[in-house]
Write a structure and sequence with these properties.
- With 335 residues, the protein is an alpha/beta fold.
- The chain is built from eleven helices and 14 strands.
- It has a six-stranded parallel sheet, covered by helices on one side. Strands 9-8-10-11-12-14 form a six-stranded mixed sheet, with helices on both faces. It has a two-stranded antiparallel sheet with strand order 4-5.
- The longest helix has 16 residues.
């Protein structure tokens, strides 16, 4: 391959082992030679030499959630570009499933871990953190764990959601929560409350419906909404799935969106593009979020991580679409 690429054998070895340490032009020359020669590196021999598995574990709460699916794409793209493989651990929102992944990490079958579940997994009295491997919290921060957190501006976006609805004239609001007790839900509801206070409203001016980050939570919130004598005219959902479930249910009951009630979501998932009307939402940079988390983990694995990089929050973008509009005139807002 060195002859084919016109470089030294040491350069070929460097490209295959540490692709981020060579110039792009050199990398492309060597990889073209690899393609032409049909060469496949002996990963077992290489891993014995470097004492690395070249594999990363990603722990996700629920793979059916489209948010995690998009984040995983970003993680996989970054890892693949750097020669790493990925093991996906799906908890399916069941804490008892953590044990198998704790064993995987304690036996050092991976080089590092990305946690999207908001906690350090445990098995009995043993914690995944005992392995001493690099760990990064992704999507949901894990406060006071001494690990990097890569998240989005949850609180700020939620505050802006209330500000946006208030500017449209909405003074009676509804909040559809995410999974109670999780760091993400605490941040988003705190931002919502800050927005309520900034708009000159009080706790009596909003209704809160609790549930996990699912379509079903939005359906349950809509059913409660329909039973109210005085209904909110502006609703903010802590995730797009809940917003979509809410919209479908109230429209089936004859409530017009946004004429009778405006709805704002959070996430910017692909499904939001296909609702009727299309969903106004705060779009997370999901792919970039995944790439950023993986990039930081790789730096830690390579010993390049510095404490100054331990808290990264990416901004969100408001996508103003068809589910929001001016508050209805008094007398039409409640039915």
């Amino acid at each position: 391959m060195a002859r084919l690429a016109g470089v030294s054998t040491a350069t070929v070895s460097r490209v295959l082992a540490n692709p981020d340490q060579v110039r792009p032009k050199t990398h492309d020359l060597v990889m073209e030679a690899v393609r032409r020669s049909g060469y496949t590196p002996n990963s077992t021999a290489r891993n014995l030499r470097t004492r690395r598995t070249m594999t990363v574990l990603v722990v996700a709460p629920r793979l059916t959630n489209p948010v995690f699916a998009q984040v995983l794409r970003g993680v996989d793209d970054e890892l693949t570009q750097n020669g790493y493989g990925i093991i996906v651990g799906n908890l399916d929102n069941l804490i008892e499933r953590e044990a198998r992944y704790v064993d995987l990490v304690l036996s050092r079958q991976v080089d590092g871990v990305l946690l999207m579940n908001g906690r350090i997994p445990e098995k009995g009295r043993r914690s995944m953190g005992e392995a001493g491997l690099p760990i990064v919290a992704l999507c949901s921060a894990i406060p006071d764990a001494g690990i990097p957190n890569v998240t989005v501006e949850d609180r700020e976006a939620s505050r802006r959601a209330v500000e946006y609805l208030a500017q449209l004239g909405h003074s009676k609001l509804g909040y559809i929560s995410g999974t109670p007790g999780t760091f993400i839900e605490v941040e988003r509801f705190s931002g919502f409350q800050e927005g309520v206070a900034a708009a000159g409203l009080s706790q009596e001016d909003f209704v809160r419906w609790e549930g996990p980050f699912t379509f079903a939570t939005g359906v349950a919130a809509a059913e409660a909404f329909l039973r109210l004598k005085k209904r909110p005219t502006g609703v903010f959902a802590a995730c797009d799935e809940s917003a979509i479930g809410f919209i479908k249910t109230v429209r089936s009951a004859g409530v017009r969106v946004p004429d009778d009630v405006s709805v704002v979501g959070f996430d910017g998932i692909e499904f939001a593009d296909y609702t009727e009307p299309t969903l106004t939402t705060f779009q997370q940079p999901l792919h970039e979020l995944g790439r950023t988390g993986a990039r930081i983990l790789l730096k830690m694995i390579q010993g390049k991580m510095s404490p100054a990089d331990w808290d990264i929050r990416l901004p969100l973008q408001l996508l103003e679409r068809g589910t929001t509009g001016p508050a209805p005139r008094r007398g039409r807002s409640a039915k």
